[in-house]
């Protein structure tokens, strides 16, 4: 055989003999063929690495990429909502309380205070809604407790209701103002009606007692009534009392009635004045009607007087 033919045949055999590769440039993609390999078989790239055609070594995936199977020809970028700390493992979903809105990350970002996530693998954190607080990004929002409220987004705690305000339901965005006729001394408790003899305006922690000469016999009042003329009001918790016969009251706001003077009377309840005893009559009892005097006597006194001369 010609010498040149022998050399050519030797080269061909040195390249491929039964799928045995001895020339690096013929090493297939996804494998590597080191120069000192003895078997002649290409070696698959291990997980976390890749190779193109004709490589003597595999290339590690760059940060944020992964190749989970041996013999990879490329690395895959880590998707949003996941992180890839190890190139040979599958992407890991961001845990609760963390998120990732970009691809190719090796870690996830903790949610800021007042934010949260509902699922693993989140691409973004959610705003804590009004009426709730988020003190743990890995937990669902918690409703504001009784006596508290929150009307803003992304809060990690609720605010206690101010003086004269209350919240009687969980998860309130705003505190309610204590209504007139009630008092709110505990923001976590529903308003209580003002007791008899007291009143209140809105937003009060206590009720105001009626002053002397006023009265209020009903609960939940927004005012006290002024004792009218013809009546007396000895007790602020009771209804007004009419002046009994023989007494009167011509002023407002009185706690007692005045007795009729001698020679005057009133037989009605609730009188504002006493009546002068008329001529020809006697008024010796201010609570009774006048009595007629005998024809020979005068009037206007507590006794009848004889007519002189």
Description:
The chain has a domain at 1-77: Tumor Necrosis Factor Receptor, subunit A, domain 2 (Ribbon). It is rod-shaped and about 165 Å long. It contains one helix and 32 strands. With 309 residues, it is mainly beta. Keywords: Signal. Pfam families: Ephrin_rec_like. Residues 104-138, 197-232 form the Tyrosine-protein kinase ephrin type A/B receptor-like domain.
Secondary structure elements and their pairing?
Blueprint: H1 3-15, E1 31-32, E2 43-44, E3 49-50, E4 59-60, E5 65-66, E6 76-77, E7 82-83, E8 92-93, E9 98-99, E10 109-110, E11 115-116, E12 126-127, E13 132-133, E14 142-143, E15 148-149, E16 159-160, E17 165-166, E18 176-177, E19 182-183, E20 192-193, E21 198-199, E22 208-209, E23 214-215, E24 225-226, E25 231-232, E26 241-242, E27 247-248, E28 258-259, E29 264-265, E30 275-276, E31 281-282, E32 291-292
Antiparallel strand pairs: 1-2, 3-4, 5-6, 7-8, 9-10, 11-12, 13-14, 15-16, 17-18, 19-20, 21-22, 23-24, 25-26, 27-28, 29-30, 31-32
Observed structural traits:
309 residues, mainly beta, Tumor Necrosis Factor Receptor, subunit A, domain 2, two-stranded antiparallel ribbon, disordered N terminus, Tyrosine-protein kinase ephrin type A/B receptor-like domain-containing protein, signal, Tyr-kin_ephrin_A/B_rcpt-like
């Amino acid at each position: 055989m010609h010498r040149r033919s022998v050399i050519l045949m030797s080269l061909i055999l040195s390249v491929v003999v039964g799928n045995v590769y001895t020339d690096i440039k013929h090493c297939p993609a996804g494998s590597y063929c080191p120069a000192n390999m003895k078997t002649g078989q290409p070696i698959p790239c291990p997980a976390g690495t890749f190779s193109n055609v004709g490589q003597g070594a595999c290339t590690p995936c760059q940060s944020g990429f992964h190749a989970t199977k041996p013999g990879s020809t490329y690395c895959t970028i880590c998707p949003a909502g996941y992180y890839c700390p190890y190139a040979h493992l599958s992407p890991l979903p961001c845990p609760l309380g963390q998120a990732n809105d970009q691809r190719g990350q090796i870690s996830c970002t903790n949610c800021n205070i007042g934010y949260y996530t509902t699922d693993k693998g989140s691409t973004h954190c959610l705003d804590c809604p009004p009426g709730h607080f988020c003190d743990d990004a890995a937990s669902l929002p918690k409703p504001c407790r009784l006596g508290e409220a929150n009307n803003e987004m992304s809060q990690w705690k609720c605010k206690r209701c101010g003086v004269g305000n209350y919240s009687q339901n969980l998860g309130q965005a705003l505190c309610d103002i204590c209504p007139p006729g009630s008092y709110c001394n505990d923001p976590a408790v529903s308003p209580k009606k003002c007791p008899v003899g007291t009143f209140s305006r809105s937003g009060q922690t206590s009720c105001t007692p009626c002053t002397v000469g006023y009265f209020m016999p009903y609960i939940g009042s927004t005012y006290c009534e002024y004792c009218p003329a013809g009546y007396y009001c000895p007790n602020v918790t009771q209804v007004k009392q009419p002046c009994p016969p023989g007494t009167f009251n011509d002023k407002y706001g009185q706690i007692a009635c005045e007795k009729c003077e001698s020679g005057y009377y009133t037989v009605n309840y609730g009188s504002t004045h006493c009546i002068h005893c008329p001529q020809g009559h006697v008024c010796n009892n201010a609570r009774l009607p006048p009595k007629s005097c005998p024809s020979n006597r005068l009037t206007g006194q507590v006794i009848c007087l004889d007519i002189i001369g």
